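Progress note, sequence design subtask.
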């Protein structure tokens, strides 16, 4: 006969009955033994859970400073409990009275009812704390919190709460002097000690400083006031500083008084100088030359100098010599001024009479540096003389022409205006030359 193959197979049976997992029973006989730590323990009834053996149960413990609370130790919300045996040791508790309870958690993470609440005491919290707070100062516009220092007269640790008056709103920096209440409470102690604290608000100093407007090249004096000490962004630590900016510039000063500070920005505006020009004065002039009109721009300025009256120069008033004539102008909008100056030479022309003659005479170069050439018509050769006068009328040179062109040496003469007088019989001619 043929062999029959055996094929492995799995049979699954469905149980139609529903079994509900019930929460474990509440622990009983909870006990607390305290010294500096709390030794907590509890017992469980036999078969406390219908699906989980007692040995496999875990436990949640809650501890609070008031009945029914868990502000010191909270229970696990999900998963197994924190403790795997029916006891717990809790360290680091402050002196005071505590309330506690425990619940069992089965293998399915189902938590049972809480055990009847118990209590225990750490230390000896029988003394009402004495809160000794000190007054503090704060700056209303800069601080966002209030730091208060205090000392406990009894040596116990306290919880401290601060509020303004009876308001329950969050503490903010006060805008004016405010009374606060500091409350000290020993954990677990019903009695509360309070201390009134006056918060002295020191206002920020009102720092003032002068803005300034100057002309370029001038200094501005900046002065701050309203505080007891100052720091400028230039590094200066005095109330007043002197600055010479070349363009519009802002300066910052921080003033401090009673530990509070404020800042002031000072602006210095720098205005440009006007462009001023005085036209050259044609010279040299003789004492009897008459007045010369002066011309300066922009219009509206003031002429000044020896021999100046209004807008004219009078050589007769100035006298012989070299003079400086100036023209100054002030911009009416900015108040800034500029000045331009020119030099004018006045000669007394003593012994020299300007005569309109028809003598054919040529003088060159003019201005002269070292040699001045004088060309004469043929009829004047050997029949004329050449005299040279300086600008105050002194005779400094005489020449007798013997050829058509005579050379006068000016290299040893000082710079300035000279008068050349050519005399031939009853006729004469005067020519002015400038020595560079």
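Output:
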């Amino acid at each position: 006969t043929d062999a029959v193959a055996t094929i492995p197979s799995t049979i699954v049976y469905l149980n139609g009955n529903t079994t509900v997992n019930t929460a474990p029973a509440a622990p009983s006989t909870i006990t607390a033994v305290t010294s500096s730590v709390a030794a907590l323990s509890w017992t469980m009834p036999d078969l406390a859970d219908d699906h989980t053996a007692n040995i496999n149960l875990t436990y949640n413990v809650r501890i609070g400073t008031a009945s029914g609370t868990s502000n010191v130790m909270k229970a696990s919300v999900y998963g197994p409990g924190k403790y795997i045996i029916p006891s717990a040791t809790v360290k680091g508790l402050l002196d005071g009275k505590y309330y506690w309870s425990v619940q069992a958690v089965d293998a399915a993470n189902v938590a049972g009812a809480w055990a009847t609440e118990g209590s225990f005491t750490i230390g000896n919290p029988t003394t009402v704390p004495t809160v000794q707070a000190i007054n503090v100062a704060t700056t209303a516009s800069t601080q966002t919190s209030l730091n208060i220092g205090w000392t406990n007269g009894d040596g116990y640790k306290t919880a401290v709460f601060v509020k303004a008056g009876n308001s329950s709103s969050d503490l903010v920096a006060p805008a004016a002097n405010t009374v606060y209440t500091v409350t000290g409470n020993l954990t677990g102690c019903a009695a509360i000690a309070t201390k009134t604290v006056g918060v002295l608000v020191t206002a920020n100093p009102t720092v003032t400083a002068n803005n300034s407007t100057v002309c370029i090249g001038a200094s501005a004096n900046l002065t701050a006031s309203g505080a007891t000490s100052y720091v400028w962004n230039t590094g200066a630590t005095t109330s007043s500083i002197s600055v010479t900016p070349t363009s519009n510039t802002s300066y910052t000063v921080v003033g401090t008084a009673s530990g509070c500070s404020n800042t002031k920005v000072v602006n210095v505006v720098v205005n440009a100088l006007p462009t001023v020009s005085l036209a050259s004065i044609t010279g040299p002039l003789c004492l009897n030359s008459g007045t010369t009109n002066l011309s300066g721009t922009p219009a509206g300025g003031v002429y000044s100098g020896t021999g100046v009256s209004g807008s004219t120069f009078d050589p007769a008033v100035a006298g012989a010599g070299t003079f400086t004539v100036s023209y100054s102008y002030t911009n009416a909008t900015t108040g800034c001024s500029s000045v331009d100056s020119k030099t004018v030479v006045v000669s007394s022309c003593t012994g020299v009479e300007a005569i309109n003659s028809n003598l054919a005479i040529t003088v060159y170069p003019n201005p002269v540096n070292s040699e001045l050439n004088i060309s004469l018509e043929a009829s004047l050769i050997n029949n004329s003389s050449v005299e040279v006068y300086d600008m105050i009328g002194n005779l400094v040179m005489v020449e007798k022409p013997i050829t058509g062109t005579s050379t006068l040496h000016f290299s040893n003469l000082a710079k300035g205006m000279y008068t050349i007088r050519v005399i031939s019989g009853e006729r004469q001619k005067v020519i002015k030359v400038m020595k560079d």
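The chain has one helix and 35 strands. Work on this subtask will continue into the next period as scheduled.
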